[in-house]
Structures are given as C-alpha cells and as structure tokens.
Amino acid sequence: MSKISAFALIDCNSFYASCEKVFRPDLKACPVLVLSNNDGCIIARSAEAKALGVEMGAPYFKVRDELNRMGVRVFSSNYELYGDMSARVMNILHQFSPDVEVYSIDEAFIGLSGFPEREFGAIGSEIKRRIYRWTGLPVSVGIAETKTLAKIANRIAKKSPKANGVLDLFRSKFREKALESTNLVDIWGVGRRLSKRLRCMGIHNALDLSRADENIIRKEFGVTLLRTLLELGGESCIPLDMMPSPKQGICSSRSFGKPVESIREMKEAVATYATLVAEKLRAQSSCATAMDIYITTNRFREDEPQYSAHLTMTFPVATANTSEIIGYAVDAVGRIFREGYRYKKAAVIAMGIVPADSVQLNLFDTARRERGEALNAVIDGLNNRFGRDALKSASTGISPEWQMRRDMKSPAYTTRWDELPVVY
DNA sequence: TCTGGGGTCCTAGGACCC
DNA sequence: TCTGGGGTCCTAGGACCC
User: Fold this and answer.
1) At what angle do helices A322-336 and A263-283 cross, to 10 degrees?
2) Residue A200's CB: how many other CB atoms inside 10 A?
3) What phi and psi, each to the nearest 5 degrees, are found at residue A203?
4) Is any atom of nucleic acid chain B found less than 7 Å from the CB of residue A249?
5) In the complex, which nucleotide's C1' lies nearest to the CA atom of residue A273?
6) Reported pTM
7) Packing angle between helix A147-159 and helix A223-232, nearest 10 degrees?
8) Is residue A95 included in any domain, yes or no?
9) How confident is the model at residue A1 (pLDDT cuts 50, 70, 90)?
10) Residue A403 pLDDT level (bands cut at 50, 70, 90)
11) How far are the Cα atoms of A216, A390, A414, A415, A424 from residue A418, in angstroms, in the given order?
12) Using the CB atom, is residue A58 less than 7 Å from strand B?
C-alpha cells in the first residue's frame, strides 16, 4: 500500500525585508524595501511597503524621490545576513520532519506523509509559531496533497486574514474555490507567456486548467504543464527533492557600479568573478571542464554604441583551482574585449561540471595539481574564518571603482563579530 | 548618473552513428 | 535513377522559478 502524499510549503513573508526588521525593532511598523545588487531594482517589500503600492522589480532610481517622501526605509541587499537567517529557519524545519526540501533561500517543502491527517493543521501552526519565536521571522504555511496545491494554499494563507498564516487544503471541500480564485500566473510553473496562450484557449484560472483536456495540454504545452494540471487535481507528480544534485552550471555575474572602459578594469572584474566561481566549485567538491566568459554594454543606453561577446574556454584537465581559472578568464577577456565601449556587465560561467574525485589526471601534472589544491584549501579556510576577501588574488584589483554599489547595507548582525548588534 | 543574479527543465534541430 | 530508420549527443533558445 502506498502512503498518502501530503506536503507543507513554508514560505517566509517578505523574507529580505523581514530579516532587516528583526534587528531593527524601531522599524517594526515602517514600510521597508530591499534592493537588488548595485541598488538597482526593488526585490523585497514589507507588508507596509506593499500597502503603499510600491512595485516589485521597479528600478529604484525612478521611484527614489517618491519613496523618500512616503518615509519608506530602503536597504541594499545583505546576502550574508539573509543566508544565515535562512539556515536558522531550515534547521527548525528539520525538527519537524526528516523530509525537508530546501527550495529557495526563503522557502521549503516538507513531507507530511508520516503524520496523521487530522494533525496537519496543528503542525502548520506550530511551525509558524516556533519559527517566529526563535528567529523573529513571520512565515506562512500551506498544506495539500501536491506541491503545486501546497503553493496555492500557502498563497491564500498569506493573503487571507482568516487563515492567519496557515491553510490546510488537504482533502478540503474548499479546494475548488481556492483553485477558482487563483489566477493563471499565480500557479507554480505558469508564467506570463503560458498564461496568455492558455487564456486564448478559454482557460482563465487554476480550476479551468485542472479540468482541461490532458491530451491537448500535453500536445500543445509539453509534459511540464501536464504535470501541473495533474497536480492541481491532487495527483502528486513532483516528488520532494531532499538531496539536490550538484549544480550543472555555476555562474557569477554582476553589473558594475560604474561603466568599465579599460581592459585593465575588465580583467580585474572577470578575475573577481572567476574567483567566486572557483570557490563555489570547491564548496560542492566539483571541477569544471569548460567556462564561458561574457561581457556586455548597457542595453538600456540606446544612445551608446552596443557590443557584447562571449567566449567558451575548454580546460585540458577539469579544475577548480582559482589561479588557473583566473588565468583562462583573463586570457578570454584579452580576446573578446574591444576598445571604445562602456561596459556594464560581465559573467563567468563554469560548465561541464564533474565531481572532483573523478577528474582524469594528466600523468605528469599530478604533483603540481596537488600543490594547487593544498593552497586553495588554505585560502578557503582563512576566508571562511576571517571573512570573504581576507586573502585574494592581486589580479582582482585592490579597491576597484567598478565594484557594485551597496550604499545602504545593514550590518552582518549574525555572522561577523565586529558587526554584532549592541544593546544598551 | 541610476534598470539584479543565479538557477532549472524542456524542446527542436543538427550532427553523427550503425 | 534510387537516397531508411532509429538512436544518441550536443546546443541554442524558450519558459519558468525565486
């Protein structure tokens, strides 16, 4: 006999904005926003900010004056803080169930198959209570037969005052109602494009989609949307993924704080991103067999000449060695860089990723590689202990002008001794 | 002056093989 | 003149996610 399928989706409310509020009780009732890297776009809004009509994704420079007038408090993103707060939330979830899928920095699914059905609601409430008590972060919980339905339950739990942050839709007589009130774009796996095409076929909400013809959906849209359709009907097609496999591509890309015009600066930036990529590779015990380097001008500046280029470099032996990867990356810049442009962004993408322990060694290369690995291990150790950039390659620049802007970043309250909050 | 970053999965089409 | 069928692998592009 197969076990029932039941999932809870736990999602932190306005996660980044809530993290900022935890350490600033003076801002408890204030509208708070968090910006993307380079202080570019709005990527998180507290409930108060949403109520003021602040748009998600809006370019900050366009709305800055208005936000100031409304008394909105604005923060640069502080991923060190959010990452640490996220780990605390996930630790708490592991106390409730061994089956936890960390889906994103602020979301996790947990499997509830092992629990009695009648306790689902109470478990959801206890999760919410404990996370708030132990971290100060508000979460919402949605429970249902499938991950797609749990997403919908979570969304309603967040919005409906009656739900109070927890909604159990498992075998609920309200499921149809919930589906009917869910717009296409609010279904997990359905974006703007698909919504538009579905509406042309007379499908206007989640209930319509759950009742659509399976063959037509399969044929017109593929298996992904068919799975969504089935999941909306309560048939679980997307299992929990508790042990995410190592990433297949590892990317580091950033816009510059100010345009880069010289090849020297471009090499510094690309060396910096290459360093990050190498660190990420080592953190998941992988090596890369190839790498893509991208550089591009600012596509929003239609008045400026545009140029973008990329180059794929294949390594003779798979590697995660910082200085080796920097070497290839800088070489690539030399080949694709053109004078006379104002560059906005660069990216380093590692590809062909393989486990470090399965790398085919070149017979004569072994001793040199071993020394490289030992050096990298020491660098990683020091940087973990004393903070990122305690030790870095000189080729990444000393205090480069292209570095991204983060003018309004809060302290790393929980991860740096010298930035701990002080209480009087 | 100022417009994020890092991923996944699926599909179609071409190259190549027997 | 005739010119199959099936499989795999790779890549680019599209769509989606947070």
Assistant:
1) 140
2) 8
3) -100, 120
4) yes
5) B5
6) 0.91
7) 60
8) yes
9) very low
10) confident
11) 60, 15, 10, 9, 16
12) no
Q: The domain spanning residue A41 has which CATH number?
A: 3.30.70.270
Q: What are the pLDDT digits (tens) for A129-152? A: 999 999 999 999 999 999 999 999
What is the distance in angstroms measured between the alpha-carbon CA of A23 and the sugar C1' of B5? 25
Whether nucleic acid strand B comes within 7 Å of the CB of A253, the answer is yes
**How many Å apart are A350 CA and C7 C1'?**
30
Distance (Å) from CA A123 to C1' C16? 31
Q: How confident is the model at residue A376 (pLDDT cuts 50, 70, 90)?
A: confident
CATH number of the domain that A358 lies in? 3.30.1490.100
Task: Determine, yes or no, domain membership for A82.
Answer: yes
Given a cut of 60, whether residue A2 has pLDDT beyond it is no
Same domain (yes/no): A160, A22:
yes
* In-domain check, residue A413: no
**Whether residue A140 sits in one domain with residue A90:** yes
Q: Which residues contact A420 (CB under 8 A, 6 or more apart)?
A: A413
Beta-bridged to residue A205, according to DSSP, are A183
CA of A223 to C1' of C4 (A): 30
A43 touches strand B (CB under 7 A): yes
Does residue A193 share a domain with residue A92? no
**Where does residue A71 fall: left (phi above 0), alpha (psi -120 to 50 degrees), or beta otherwise?**
left
Are residues A331 and A237 part of one domain? no
| Nucleotides of strand C lying closer than 7 angstroms to a protein CB | 14-18
Q: Per the structure, how many domains does chain A have?
A: 3
Cα separation of A328 and A313, whole Å?
7
Cβ contact A41 with chain B strand, < 7 A: yes
